[in-house]
Amino acid sequence: MTDSTIVNANSTPTYVVGVDYGTLSGRALVVRVSDGAEVGTAVHPYAHAVIEKTLPGGDEPLPPDWALQHPGDWVDVLRTAVPAAVADAGIDAADVIGIATDFTACTVLPTTADGTPLSALHPDRPHAWPKLWKHHAAQPQADRINALAHERGEPWINRYGGKISSEWEFAKGLQVLEEDPETYAATDRWIEAADWIIWQLTGQETRNRCTAGYKGIYQDGHWPDRAYLEALNPGFGDFVAKLEHPLSALGDRAGSLTAEAAGWTGLPEGIAVAVGNVDAHVTAPAAQAIAPGQMVAIMGTSTCHVMNGERLAEVPGMCGVVDGGIVAGLHGYEAGQSGVGDIFGWFVDTQLPPDYHEAAAAAGVDPHEYLSGLAAQQAVGAHGLIALDWHNGNRSVLVDHELSGVLVGTTLATRPEDIYRALVEATAFGTRTIIDAFETSGIPVDELVVAGGLLKNRFLMQVYADIANRPLSVIGSEQGPALGSAIHAAVAAGAYPDVPAASAAMGRVERAVYRPDPARAKAYEALYAEYRTLHDYFGRGGNDVLHRLRRIRNEARR
Q1: How distant is the alpha carbon of residue 197 from its chain centre?
Q2: Residue 265: what are its φ and ψ, rounded to 5°?
Protein backbone atom coordinates (compact mmCIF):
# COMPACT_ATOMS: atom_id res chain seq x y z
CA MET A 1 0.00 0.00 0.00
CA THR A 2 1.24 3.52 -0.77
CA ASP A 3 0.81 6.73 1.21
CA SER A 4 -1.64 7.91 -1.46
CA THR A 5 -4.13 5.29 -0.33
CA ILE A 6 -4.46 7.03 3.04
CA VAL A 7 -4.47 10.48 1.46
CA ASN A 8 -7.31 9.48 -0.81
CA ALA A 9 -9.22 8.04 2.13
CA ASN A 10 -8.77 11.33 3.94
CA SER A 11 -9.74 13.59 1.04
CA THR A 12 -12.79 11.62 -0.10
CA PRO A 13 -14.74 10.30 2.90
CA THR A 14 -14.84 6.54 2.99
CA TYR A 15 -16.27 4.35 5.70
CA VAL A 16 -16.02 0.92 7.25
CA VAL A 17 -18.48 -1.11 9.28
CA GLY A 18 -17.62 -2.90 12.50
CA VAL A 19 -20.03 -5.51 13.85
CA ASP A 20 -19.78 -6.55 17.48
CA TYR A 21 -21.49 -9.80 18.44
CA GLY A 22 -22.23 -9.82 22.16
CA THR A 23 -24.00 -12.20 24.49
CA LEU A 24 -27.51 -10.80 23.98
CA SER A 25 -27.31 -8.63 20.87
CA GLY A 26 -25.24 -7.56 17.90
CA ARG A 27 -24.21 -3.98 17.18
CA ALA A 28 -23.16 -2.42 13.89
CA LEU A 29 -21.07 0.74 13.81
CA VAL A 30 -20.25 2.89 10.79
CA VAL A 31 -16.87 4.59 11.15
CA ARG A 32 -15.09 7.16 9.00
CA VAL A 33 -11.77 5.76 7.85
CA SER A 34 -9.75 8.96 8.07
CA ASP A 35 -10.21 9.70 11.76
CA GLY A 36 -12.35 7.04 13.39
CA ALA A 37 -15.42 9.24 13.74
CA GLU A 38 -18.46 7.11 14.61
CA VAL A 39 -21.25 8.29 12.35
CA GLY A 40 -23.98 5.67 12.67
CA THR A 41 -24.95 2.72 14.82
CA ALA A 42 -27.74 0.20 15.34
CA VAL A 43 -28.38 -2.73 17.67
CA HIS A 44 -30.27 -5.95 17.00
CA PRO A 45 -31.26 -8.00 20.08
CA TYR A 46 -31.09 -11.75 19.51
CA ALA A 47 -34.59 -13.18 19.28
CA HIS A 48 -33.50 -16.28 21.20
CA ALA A 49 -31.07 -14.50 23.56
CA VAL A 50 -29.21 -17.16 25.57
CA ILE A 51 -30.74 -20.63 25.28
CA GLU A 52 -30.30 -22.12 28.74
CA LYS A 53 -33.64 -23.60 29.79
CA THR A 54 -35.09 -25.48 26.79
CA LEU A 55 -34.29 -25.73 23.08
CA PRO A 56 -36.36 -23.52 20.75
CA GLY A 57 -39.68 -25.23 20.20
CA GLY A 58 -38.96 -27.87 22.84
CA ASP A 59 -39.96 -28.40 26.43
CA GLU A 60 -37.25 -30.78 27.68
CA PRO A 61 -35.15 -28.91 30.29
CA LEU A 62 -31.49 -28.45 29.48
CA PRO A 63 -29.03 -29.70 32.13
CA PRO A 64 -27.37 -27.27 34.56
CA ASP A 65 -24.64 -24.93 33.29
CA TRP A 66 -25.70 -25.11 29.64
CA ALA A 67 -25.71 -21.95 27.49
CA LEU A 68 -26.49 -22.13 23.76
CA GLN A 69 -27.28 -19.70 20.95
CA HIS A 70 -29.16 -19.66 17.65
CA PRO A 71 -27.00 -19.01 14.54
CA GLY A 72 -29.98 -17.44 12.81
CA ASP A 73 -29.82 -14.62 15.34
CA TRP A 74 -26.29 -13.82 14.18
CA VAL A 75 -27.30 -13.60 10.52
CA ASP A 76 -30.24 -11.40 11.51
CA VAL A 77 -27.74 -8.86 12.86
CA LEU A 78 -26.32 -8.56 9.33
CA ARG A 79 -29.81 -8.23 7.87
CA THR A 80 -31.05 -5.58 10.30
CA ALA A 81 -28.35 -3.80 12.27
CA VAL A 82 -25.93 -3.18 9.39
CA PRO A 83 -28.40 -1.47 7.02
CA ALA A 84 -29.93 0.39 9.96
CA ALA A 85 -26.51 1.70 11.00
CA VAL A 86 -25.78 2.88 7.45
CA ALA A 87 -29.15 4.62 7.37
CA ASP A 88 -28.43 6.20 10.76
CA ALA A 89 -25.11 7.48 9.40
CA GLY A 90 -26.86 9.10 6.45
CA ILE A 91 -24.12 8.02 4.06
CA ASP A 92 -24.12 6.37 0.67
CA ALA A 93 -23.48 2.66 1.16
CA ALA A 94 -21.26 2.82 -1.93
CA ASP A 95 -18.72 4.71 0.21
CA VAL A 96 -18.23 1.72 2.53
CA ILE A 97 -14.97 -0.05 1.68
CA GLY A 98 -14.84 -2.84 4.26
CA ILE A 99 -16.56 -4.74 7.05
CA ALA A 100 -15.19 -6.65 10.03
CA THR A 101 -16.75 -8.53 12.91
CA ASP A 102 -15.83 -9.59 16.41
CA PHE A 103 -17.44 -12.25 18.56
CA THR A 104 -17.69 -13.58 22.08
CA ALA A 105 -15.31 -16.50 22.54
CA CYS A 106 -15.21 -19.35 22.93
CA THR A 107 -18.61 -19.50 21.21
CA VAL A 108 -18.32 -22.56 19.00
CA LEU A 109 -20.57 -24.68 16.80
CA PRO A 110 -20.59 -27.94 14.84
CA THR A 111 -21.28 -27.72 11.10
CA THR A 112 -21.24 -29.77 7.95
CA ALA A 113 -18.40 -29.42 5.45
CA ASP A 114 -20.17 -26.52 3.74
CA GLY A 115 -20.75 -24.63 7.00
CA THR A 116 -24.39 -25.57 7.61
CA PRO A 117 -24.99 -25.55 11.39
CA LEU A 118 -26.01 -28.96 12.67
CA SER A 119 -28.70 -27.22 14.72
CA ALA A 120 -30.50 -26.50 11.44
CA LEU A 121 -30.46 -30.22 10.58
CA HIS A 122 -31.02 -31.68 14.05
CA PRO A 123 -32.85 -29.02 16.07
CA ASP A 124 -33.94 -31.55 18.71
CA ARG A 125 -30.36 -32.46 19.70
CA PRO A 126 -28.87 -30.05 22.28
CA HIS A 127 -25.27 -30.81 21.27
CA ALA A 128 -26.04 -29.76 17.68
CA TRP A 129 -26.49 -26.16 18.82
CA PRO A 130 -23.74 -23.54 19.20
CA LYS A 131 -22.26 -23.49 22.69
CA LEU A 132 -22.00 -19.95 24.01
CA TRP A 133 -18.83 -18.82 25.77
CA LYS A 134 -20.45 -19.25 29.18
CA HIS A 135 -21.50 -22.86 28.60
CA HIS A 136 -19.77 -24.42 31.59
CA ALA A 137 -21.11 -27.97 31.46
CA ALA A 138 -17.81 -29.31 30.09
CA GLN A 139 -15.91 -28.86 33.35
CA PRO A 140 -15.39 -32.63 33.87
CA GLN A 141 -13.84 -32.84 30.41
CA ALA A 142 -11.66 -29.80 31.13
CA ASP A 143 -10.44 -31.39 34.35
CA ARG A 144 -9.34 -34.51 32.45
CA ILE A 145 -7.71 -32.45 29.69
CA ASN A 146 -5.64 -30.64 32.32
CA ALA A 147 -4.74 -33.66 34.42
CA LEU A 148 -3.58 -35.67 31.41
CA ALA A 149 -1.61 -32.74 29.98
CA HIS A 150 0.35 -32.39 33.21
CA GLU A 151 0.77 -36.14 33.53
CA ARG A 152 2.24 -36.36 30.02
CA GLY A 153 4.19 -33.10 30.30
CA GLU A 154 2.46 -31.56 27.29
CA PRO A 155 4.49 -28.47 26.31
CA TRP A 156 1.46 -26.27 25.65
CA ILE A 157 -0.31 -26.51 29.01
CA ASN A 158 1.67 -23.74 30.74
CA ARG A 159 0.91 -21.34 27.86
CA TYR A 160 -2.62 -21.40 29.37
CA GLY A 161 -1.64 -20.78 32.96
CA GLY A 162 -1.58 -24.51 33.66
CA LYS A 163 -5.28 -25.08 32.97
CA ILE A 164 -7.51 -25.24 29.92
CA SER A 165 -10.93 -23.74 30.63
CA SER A 166 -14.20 -25.60 30.25
CA GLU A 167 -15.20 -22.68 28.02
CA TRP A 168 -12.62 -23.52 25.36
CA GLU A 169 -12.89 -25.58 22.17
CA PHE A 170 -11.38 -28.89 23.23
CA ALA A 171 -13.41 -29.31 26.43
CA LYS A 172 -16.66 -28.53 24.63
CA GLY A 173 -15.75 -30.82 21.74
CA LEU A 174 -14.91 -33.69 24.09
CA GLN A 175 -18.24 -33.19 25.83
CA VAL A 176 -20.05 -33.60 22.50
CA LEU A 177 -18.16 -36.82 21.76
CA GLU A 178 -18.89 -38.35 25.14
CA GLU A 179 -22.51 -37.26 25.52
CA ASP A 180 -23.73 -37.37 21.91
CA PRO A 181 -21.36 -39.41 19.71
CA GLU A 182 -23.79 -39.29 16.76
CA THR A 183 -23.62 -35.49 16.66
CA TYR A 184 -19.85 -35.64 17.02
CA ALA A 185 -19.61 -38.05 14.08
CA ALA A 186 -21.79 -35.74 11.97
CA THR A 187 -19.53 -32.76 12.76
CA ASP A 188 -17.29 -32.05 9.79
CA ARG A 189 -16.18 -28.65 11.08
CA TRP A 190 -15.92 -27.46 14.69
CA ILE A 191 -15.68 -23.73 14.29
CA GLU A 192 -15.68 -20.57 16.34
CA ALA A 193 -18.64 -18.30 15.67
CA ALA A 194 -16.03 -15.60 14.95
CA ASP A 195 -14.95 -17.60 11.89
CA TRP A 196 -18.38 -18.97 10.98
CA ILE A 197 -19.86 -15.49 10.49
CA ILE A 198 -16.98 -14.60 8.15
CA TRP A 199 -17.81 -17.77 6.19
CA GLN A 200 -21.33 -16.41 5.74
CA LEU A 201 -20.02 -13.04 4.56
CA THR A 202 -17.37 -14.32 2.12
CA GLY A 203 -18.60 -17.77 1.13
CA GLN A 204 -15.28 -19.33 2.12
CA GLU A 205 -13.94 -20.81 5.34
CA THR A 206 -11.13 -19.04 7.16
CA ARG A 207 -9.66 -19.42 10.63
CA ASN A 208 -8.16 -16.59 12.65
CA ARG A 209 -4.96 -16.79 14.63
CA CYS A 210 -6.53 -15.30 17.76
CA THR A 211 -9.19 -17.90 18.54
CA ALA A 212 -6.97 -20.75 17.37
CA GLY A 213 -4.31 -19.73 19.87
CA TYR A 214 -6.39 -18.72 22.87
CA LYS A 215 -9.35 -21.07 22.55
CA GLY A 216 -7.98 -23.91 20.40
CA ILE A 217 -4.62 -24.84 21.99
CA TYR A 218 -2.66 -23.91 18.85
CA GLN A 219 0.92 -23.11 19.88
CA ASP A 220 4.22 -22.94 17.98
CA GLY A 221 2.58 -24.13 14.78
CA HIS A 222 0.97 -27.23 16.28
CA TRP A 223 -2.28 -28.51 17.77
CA PRO A 224 -2.23 -31.14 20.54
CA ASP A 225 -1.04 -34.41 19.00
CA ARG A 226 -3.19 -37.41 18.16
CA ALA A 227 -1.65 -39.64 20.83
CA TYR A 228 -2.64 -37.20 23.55
CA LEU A 229 -6.19 -36.85 22.19
CA GLU A 230 -6.66 -40.60 21.94
CA ALA A 231 -5.43 -40.98 25.51
CA LEU A 232 -8.28 -38.67 26.52
CA ASN A 233 -10.77 -40.75 24.55
CA PRO A 234 -9.99 -43.19 21.72
CA GLY A 235 -12.63 -41.51 19.56
CA PHE A 236 -11.14 -38.03 20.02
CA GLY A 237 -8.11 -38.59 17.85
CA ASP A 238 -9.74 -37.00 14.79
CA PHE A 239 -10.77 -33.79 16.57
CA VAL A 240 -7.99 -31.63 15.11
CA ALA A 241 -9.21 -32.55 11.61
CA LYS A 242 -12.45 -30.73 12.43
CA LEU A 243 -10.45 -27.60 13.37
CA GLU A 244 -7.50 -27.63 11.03
CA HIS A 245 -7.34 -24.91 8.42
CA PRO A 246 -4.67 -22.37 7.37
CA LEU A 247 -4.61 -19.55 9.91
CA SER A 248 -4.89 -15.87 8.97
CA ALA A 249 -3.33 -12.93 10.77
CA LEU A 250 -5.51 -10.31 12.41
CA GLY A 251 -6.26 -7.45 10.04
CA ASP A 252 -5.83 -9.65 6.98
CA ARG A 253 -8.47 -9.72 4.28
CA ALA A 254 -10.50 -12.93 4.64
CA GLY A 255 -12.24 -12.42 1.31
CA SER A 256 -14.81 -10.29 -0.44
CA LEU A 257 -18.45 -9.67 0.41
CA THR A 258 -20.62 -12.07 -1.57
CA ALA A 259 -23.68 -11.04 -3.54
CA GLU A 260 -25.91 -12.79 -0.98
CA ALA A 261 -24.27 -11.03 1.97
CA ALA A 262 -24.40 -7.73 0.07
CA GLY A 263 -28.14 -8.28 -0.20
CA TRP A 264 -28.40 -8.83 3.56
CA THR A 265 -26.34 -5.82 4.55
CA GLY A 266 -27.02 -3.35 1.75
CA LEU A 267 -23.25 -2.93 1.31
CA PRO A 268 -21.41 -3.12 -2.03
CA GLU A 269 -20.60 -6.60 -3.28
CA GLY A 270 -16.88 -7.29 -3.34
CA ILE A 271 -15.76 -5.00 -0.51
CA ALA A 272 -13.12 -6.27 1.91
CA VAL A 273 -14.11 -8.58 4.75
CA ALA A 274 -11.56 -8.79 7.53
CA VAL A 275 -10.48 -11.98 9.25
CA GLY A 276 -12.63 -12.83 12.28
CA ASN A 277 -11.60 -11.73 15.74
CA VAL A 278 -12.60 -11.73 19.42
CA ASP A 279 -14.47 -8.87 21.07
CA ALA A 280 -11.85 -8.25 23.75
CA HIS A 281 -8.84 -8.42 21.47
CA VAL A 282 -10.14 -5.94 18.90
CA THR A 283 -10.83 -3.47 21.70
CA ALA A 284 -7.17 -2.94 22.55
CA PRO A 285 -6.43 -1.08 19.27
CA ALA A 286 -9.68 0.87 19.66
CA ALA A 287 -8.45 2.09 23.05
CA GLN A 288 -4.94 2.83 21.73
CA ALA A 289 -3.67 0.37 24.32
CA ILE A 290 -1.41 -1.99 22.42
CA ALA A 291 1.94 -1.07 23.98
CA PRO A 292 3.47 -3.44 26.57
CA GLY A 293 2.31 -2.57 30.10
CA GLN A 294 -1.17 -1.44 29.07
CA MET A 295 -3.83 -3.84 30.31
CA VAL A 296 -7.29 -3.43 28.80
CA ALA A 297 -10.26 -4.56 30.89
CA ILE A 298 -13.35 -4.94 28.74
CA MET A 299 -16.08 -4.82 31.35
CA GLY A 300 -19.60 -5.99 30.65
CA THR A 301 -21.49 -9.13 31.65
CA SER A 302 -18.01 -10.59 32.15
CA THR A 303 -14.59 -8.98 32.00
CA CYS A 304 -11.75 -9.91 29.69
CA HIS A 305 -8.24 -8.63 30.41
CA VAL A 306 -5.85 -8.39 27.48
CA MET A 307 -2.41 -6.89 27.10
CA ASN A 308 0.75 -7.13 25.05
CA GLY A 309 4.18 -8.08 26.29
CA GLU A 310 7.59 -8.06 24.68
CA ARG A 311 8.56 -11.41 26.19
CA LEU A 312 6.96 -14.82 26.53
CA ALA A 313 6.09 -15.65 30.13
CA GLU A 314 4.00 -18.29 31.85
CA VAL A 315 1.40 -16.55 34.00
CA PRO A 316 -0.46 -18.90 36.37
CA GLY A 317 -4.17 -18.99 35.59
CA MET A 318 -4.05 -16.88 32.45
CA CYS A 319 -6.34 -17.80 29.58
CA GLY A 320 -3.43 -17.90 27.19
CA VAL A 321 -0.50 -16.19 25.54
CA VAL A 322 -0.30 -16.09 21.75
CA ASP A 323 2.40 -14.63 19.52
CA GLY A 324 0.58 -11.97 17.50
CA GLY A 325 -2.66 -12.67 19.36
CA ILE A 326 -3.53 -8.95 19.51
CA VAL A 327 -1.06 -7.26 17.14
CA ALA A 328 1.83 -8.65 15.14
CA GLY A 329 5.25 -8.67 16.75
CA LEU A 330 4.16 -8.87 20.41
CA HIS A 331 2.96 -11.62 22.70
CA GLY A 332 -0.73 -11.12 23.45
CA TYR A 333 -1.88 -12.17 26.91
CA GLU A 334 -5.45 -12.85 28.01
CA ALA A 335 -7.11 -13.39 31.38
CA GLY A 336 -10.64 -12.80 32.54
CA GLN A 337 -13.52 -12.98 34.98
CA SER A 338 -16.57 -15.04 34.05
CA GLY A 339 -19.03 -12.82 35.88
CA VAL A 340 -19.02 -9.07 36.56
CA GLY A 341 -22.01 -7.15 35.23
CA ASP A 342 -23.94 -10.42 35.37
CA ILE A 343 -23.37 -10.50 39.13
CA PHE A 344 -24.69 -6.98 39.64
CA GLY A 345 -27.63 -7.78 37.39
CA TRP A 346 -28.41 -10.97 39.32
CA PHE A 347 -28.46 -9.04 42.60
CA VAL A 348 -30.75 -6.31 41.32
CA ASP A 349 -33.08 -8.69 39.48
CA THR A 350 -33.46 -11.33 42.19
CA GLN A 351 -32.38 -9.94 45.57
CA LEU A 352 -33.30 -6.26 45.69
CA PRO A 353 -36.45 -5.50 47.74
CA PRO A 354 -39.38 -3.80 45.99
CA ASP A 355 -39.02 -0.61 48.03
CA TYR A 356 -35.54 -0.08 46.55
CA HIS A 357 -36.90 -0.45 43.03
CA GLU A 358 -39.61 2.05 43.92
CA ALA A 359 -37.11 4.50 45.40
CA ALA A 360 -34.93 4.28 42.29
CA ALA A 361 -37.95 4.92 40.06
CA ALA A 362 -38.97 7.89 42.18
CA ALA A 363 -35.46 9.30 41.86
CA GLY A 364 -35.57 8.82 38.09
CA VAL A 365 -32.58 6.47 37.98
CA ASP A 366 -32.13 2.76 37.41
CA PRO A 367 -31.51 0.52 40.44
CA HIS A 368 -27.80 0.16 39.71
CA GLU A 369 -27.29 3.91 39.77
CA TYR A 370 -29.41 4.20 42.90
CA LEU A 371 -27.44 1.51 44.75
CA SER A 372 -24.14 2.96 43.56
CA GLY A 373 -25.10 6.35 45.01
CA LEU A 374 -25.88 4.80 48.38
CA ALA A 375 -22.77 2.62 48.36
CA ALA A 376 -20.52 5.55 47.45
CA GLN A 377 -21.41 7.27 50.73
CA GLN A 378 -19.77 4.48 52.76
CA ALA A 379 -16.24 4.44 54.08
CA VAL A 380 -14.07 1.55 52.94
CA GLY A 381 -14.88 -1.50 55.07
CA ALA A 382 -17.90 0.07 56.79
CA HIS A 383 -20.22 -2.69 55.60
CA GLY A 384 -18.12 -5.41 57.23
CA LEU A 385 -18.42 -7.74 54.23
CA ILE A 386 -16.22 -9.71 51.85
CA ALA A 387 -17.57 -11.41 48.73
CA LEU A 388 -16.01 -13.81 46.25
CA ASP A 389 -16.96 -13.00 42.64
CA TRP A 390 -17.49 -16.59 41.47
CA HIS A 391 -21.22 -16.55 40.75
CA ASN A 392 -20.40 -17.72 37.21
CA GLY A 393 -17.30 -19.65 38.17
CA ASN A 394 -13.71 -18.43 38.04
CA ARG A 395 -11.89 -17.95 34.74
CA SER A 396 -8.66 -16.48 36.11
CA VAL A 397 -6.63 -17.31 38.01
CA LEU A 398 -8.21 -20.50 39.33
CA VAL A 399 -9.78 -21.63 36.02
CA ASP A 400 -12.60 -23.48 37.76
CA HIS A 401 -16.19 -22.98 36.62
CA GLU A 402 -17.60 -25.21 39.34
CA LEU A 403 -16.86 -22.58 41.96
CA SER A 404 -19.69 -20.35 43.16
CA GLY A 405 -20.19 -17.04 44.93
CA VAL A 406 -19.47 -16.46 48.61
CA LEU A 407 -20.58 -13.64 50.92
CA VAL A 408 -19.33 -13.41 54.51
CA GLY A 409 -19.91 -10.91 57.31
CA THR A 410 -23.65 -10.33 57.00
CA THR A 411 -25.64 -9.30 60.06
CA LEU A 412 -29.24 -8.28 60.69
CA ALA A 413 -28.06 -4.72 60.03
CA THR A 414 -26.76 -5.50 56.53
CA ARG A 415 -28.54 -3.49 53.85
CA PRO A 416 -28.80 -4.07 50.08
CA GLU A 417 -26.36 -1.25 49.33
CA ASP A 418 -23.81 -2.95 51.59
CA ILE A 419 -24.03 -6.17 49.60
CA TYR A 420 -23.98 -4.31 46.30
CA ARG A 421 -20.81 -2.51 47.29
CA ALA A 422 -19.24 -5.77 48.46
CA LEU A 423 -20.02 -7.37 45.07
CA VAL A 424 -18.48 -4.41 43.22
CA GLU A 425 -15.39 -4.66 45.41
CA ALA A 426 -15.20 -8.43 44.88
CA THR A 427 -14.98 -8.01 41.10
CA ALA A 428 -12.28 -5.35 41.58
CA PHE A 429 -10.37 -7.70 43.90
CA GLY A 430 -10.65 -10.33 41.16
CA THR A 431 -9.03 -7.94 38.68
CA ARG A 432 -6.34 -7.09 41.25
CA THR A 433 -5.62 -10.81 41.64
CA ILE A 434 -5.10 -11.07 37.88
CA ILE A 435 -2.80 -8.03 37.83
CA ASP A 436 -0.74 -9.49 40.68
CA ALA A 437 -0.38 -12.79 38.79
CA PHE A 438 1.01 -10.96 35.75
CA GLU A 439 3.42 -8.82 37.71
CA THR A 440 4.67 -11.75 39.79
CA SER A 441 5.42 -13.49 36.48
CA GLY A 442 7.48 -10.58 35.21
CA ILE A 443 4.85 -8.89 33.03
CA PRO A 444 4.42 -5.35 34.41
CA VAL A 445 1.00 -3.67 34.36
CA ASP A 446 1.56 0.09 34.34
CA GLU A 447 -1.86 1.26 33.23
CA LEU A 448 -5.38 -0.14 33.39
CA VAL A 449 -7.54 0.92 30.45
CA VAL A 450 -11.27 0.25 30.79
CA ALA A 451 -13.75 -0.33 28.01
CA GLY A 452 -17.27 -1.74 27.90
CA GLY A 453 -20.67 -0.82 29.22
CA LEU A 454 -19.70 -0.66 32.90
CA LEU A 455 -17.36 2.29 32.48
CA LYS A 456 -20.42 4.55 32.74
CA ASN A 457 -20.61 3.76 36.47
CA ARG A 458 -18.27 6.32 38.03
CA PHE A 459 -18.53 4.76 41.50
CA LEU A 460 -17.44 1.39 40.15
CA MET A 461 -14.56 2.90 38.22
CA GLN A 462 -13.24 4.71 41.30
CA VAL A 463 -13.43 1.50 43.34
CA TYR A 464 -11.33 -0.23 40.67
CA ALA A 465 -8.76 2.57 40.68
CA ASP A 466 -8.50 2.44 44.48
CA ILE A 467 -8.26 -1.36 44.70
CA ALA A 468 -5.85 -1.73 41.76
CA ASN A 469 -3.96 1.31 43.07
CA ARG A 470 -3.32 2.43 39.52
CA PRO A 471 -4.67 5.18 37.30
CA LEU A 472 -7.62 4.14 35.17
CA SER A 473 -7.82 5.34 31.61
CA VAL A 474 -11.07 4.94 29.69
CA ILE A 475 -11.68 4.28 26.03
CA GLY A 476 -13.07 7.31 24.23
CA SER A 477 -15.89 5.31 22.67
CA GLU A 478 -19.00 3.61 23.97
CA GLN A 479 -18.59 0.97 21.26
CA GLY A 480 -15.06 -0.29 21.83
CA PRO A 481 -15.32 -3.72 20.19
CA ALA A 482 -17.27 -2.41 17.19
CA LEU A 483 -14.74 0.42 16.75
CA GLY A 484 -11.93 -2.13 17.03
CA SER A 485 -13.55 -4.23 14.34
CA ALA A 486 -13.88 -1.15 12.15
CA ILE A 487 -10.14 -0.53 12.61
CA HIS A 488 -9.43 -4.06 11.36
CA ALA A 489 -11.81 -3.50 8.44
CA ALA A 490 -9.84 -0.42 7.43
CA VAL A 491 -6.61 -2.43 7.43
CA ALA A 492 -8.20 -5.28 5.47
CA ALA A 493 -9.43 -2.73 2.92
CA GLY A 494 -5.91 -1.34 2.48
CA ALA A 495 -6.55 2.08 4.01
CA TYR A 496 -3.74 1.59 6.56
CA PRO A 497 -0.62 -0.56 6.42
CA ASP A 498 -1.24 -2.34 9.72
CA VAL A 499 -3.33 -2.36 12.88
CA PRO A 500 -1.04 -0.05 14.93
CA ALA A 501 -1.21 2.63 12.22
CA ALA A 502 -4.99 2.36 12.03
CA SER A 503 -5.22 2.41 15.84
CA ALA A 504 -3.22 5.63 16.02
CA ALA A 505 -5.55 7.33 13.54
CA MET A 506 -8.92 5.81 14.44
CA GLY A 507 -8.69 4.77 18.12
CA ARG A 508 -9.30 7.04 21.08
CA VAL A 509 -8.64 7.04 24.81
CA GLU A 510 -8.80 9.42 27.78
CA ARG A 511 -5.78 8.91 30.00
CA ALA A 512 -5.85 8.67 33.82
CA VAL A 513 -9.49 9.70 34.18
CA TYR A 514 -9.65 7.99 37.59
CA ARG A 515 -6.76 8.14 40.03
CA PRO A 516 -6.48 6.11 43.23
CA ASP A 517 -7.19 7.92 46.48
CA PRO A 518 -4.20 7.14 48.74
CA ALA A 519 -6.28 6.74 51.92
CA ARG A 520 -8.85 4.47 50.30
CA ALA A 521 -6.17 2.46 48.51
CA LYS A 522 -4.42 1.84 51.84
CA ALA A 523 -7.69 0.84 53.52
CA TYR A 524 -8.45 -1.60 50.72
CA GLU A 525 -5.16 -3.44 51.27
CA ALA A 526 -6.58 -4.95 54.47
CA LEU A 527 -9.77 -6.05 52.72
CA TYR A 528 -7.82 -7.42 49.78
CA ALA A 529 -5.77 -9.56 52.18
CA GLU A 530 -9.02 -11.03 53.53
CA TYR A 531 -10.28 -11.61 49.98
CA ARG A 532 -7.11 -13.51 49.11
CA THR A 533 -7.44 -15.64 52.25
CA LEU A 534 -10.98 -16.65 51.28
CA HIS A 535 -9.95 -16.96 47.61
CA ASP A 536 -7.29 -19.53 48.43
CA TYR A 537 -9.31 -21.32 51.11
CA PHE A 538 -12.35 -21.96 48.92
CA GLY A 539 -10.55 -22.01 45.57
CA ARG A 540 -7.31 -23.89 46.15
CA GLY A 541 -8.47 -26.89 48.16
CA GLY A 542 -8.59 -25.57 51.72
CA ASN A 543 -12.27 -26.47 51.75
CA ASP A 544 -14.00 -28.15 48.81
CA VAL A 545 -17.50 -27.22 49.98
CA LEU A 546 -18.35 -25.22 46.84
CA HIS A 547 -17.73 -28.24 44.62
CA ARG A 548 -19.68 -30.50 46.96
CA LEU A 549 -22.64 -28.12 46.97
CA ARG A 550 -22.64 -28.03 43.17
CA ARG A 551 -22.67 -31.82 42.98
CA ILE A 552 -25.55 -31.98 45.45
CA ARG A 553 -27.45 -29.36 43.42
CA ASN A 554 -26.89 -31.18 40.14
CA GLU A 555 -28.03 -34.48 41.62
CA ALA A 556 -31.17 -32.85 43.00
CA ARG A 557 -32.05 -31.42 39.58
CA ARG A 558 -31.75 -34.69 37.68
Answers
A1: 17
A2: -90, -20
Cis peptide before 106 (omega within 30 of 0): yes
Q: For residues 100 and 491, what is the distance between their CA atoms, to the nearest angstrom? A: 10
Indicate if 219 and 89 belong to the same structural domain.
yes
Cβ–Cβ < 8 Å for 339, 322: no
CATH number at residue 535: 3.30.420.40
Whether residue 147 sits in one domain with residue 168: yes
The answer to whether 125 touches 180, Cβ cutoff 8 Å, is yes
Residue 184 shares a structural domain with residue 252: yes
Measured distance CA(302)–CA(338) in Å, rounded: 5
Question: Which among 397, 355, 402 has a CA at the least distance from the CA of 546?
Answer: 402
Question: Is the distance from CB of 276 to CB of 254 less than 8 angstroms?
Answer: yes
How many domains does one find in the chain? 3
- State whether 378 and 276 are in the same domain: no
User: What range does the domain containing 541 cover?
Assistant: 342-428+520-557
Same domain, 74 and 89: yes
Burial class (CB in 10 A: 0-12, 13-18, 19+), 59: exposed
**pTM (2 d.p.):** 0.91
Same-domain status, 273 and 290 = no
Tell me the H-state helices in 441-472.
Answer: 458-468
Instruction: Note whether 323 and 397 are same-domain residues.
Output: no
Residues 330 and 363 in one domain: no
pLDDT tens-digit profile, the chain (558 residues): 333 344 344 467 899 999 999 999 999 999 999 999 999 999 999 999 999 999 999 999 999 999 999 999 999 999 999 999 999 999 999 999 999 999 999 999 999 999 999 999 999 999 999 999 999 999 999 999 999 999 999 999 999 999 999 999 999 999 999 999 999 999 999 999 999 999 999 999 999 999 999 999 999 999 999 999 999 999 999 999 999 999 999 999 999 999 999 999 999 999 999 999 999 999 999 999 999 999 999 999 899 999 999 999 999 999 999 999 999 999 999 999 999 999 999 999 999 999 999 999 999 999 999 999 999 999 999 999 999 999 999 999 998 989 999 999 999 999 999 999 999 999 999 999 999 999 999 999 999 999 998 999 999 999 999 999 999 999 999 999 999 999 999 999 999 999 999 999 999 999 999 999 999 999 999 999 999 999 999 999 999 999 999 999 989 987
Contacts of 194 (CB under 8 A, 6+ apart): 21, 101, 102, 103, 105, 107, 208, 210, 211, 276, 277, 278
Which of 488, 503, 485, 506 minimizes the C-alpha distance to 20? 485
Phi, psi of 66 (to 5 degrees): -90, 145
